[in-house]
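To: structure subgroup
Subject: Chain for Friday's discussion

All,

I'm putting the inputs and outputs inline so they're searchable in the archive.
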Amino acid sequence: MTQLPPAAPPSAAPLPRTSGLAVASLILGTVAICGAWLCCGMGFPTSALAIILGHVAASKIHRAGGRLDGRGMAIAGLIMGYIGLLLQILIILLWIVFSIHNHWRWHHPMPQQPMTY
């Protein structure tokens, strides 16, 4: 009678890999928030890309059935993308308001009151 070799132990299921789109969304969301403060206009394209990639990543992770990971990064990228977009809009609105205010003050100075002693 021949002896059979022992059966191999059952292997663990492969670990899910992290979605590259989720990582890209997270990085672009971070750049969007910094870009909104540092240079006017840079927040729009990076915010838009962070939002788009975050939605695509979250959708692919949901459809992957556990084979893809990174849902938290995708959501964080989405949130930071939306915050960067709102900050950019707020900064531009404030810039417009202050520009109008300064223009008005420059072209319509307050009348000088006569000095009374």
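Points worth raising on Friday:
The first strand starts at residue 17 and ends at 18.
Residues 110 and 116 are 18 Å apart (CA to CA).

D.
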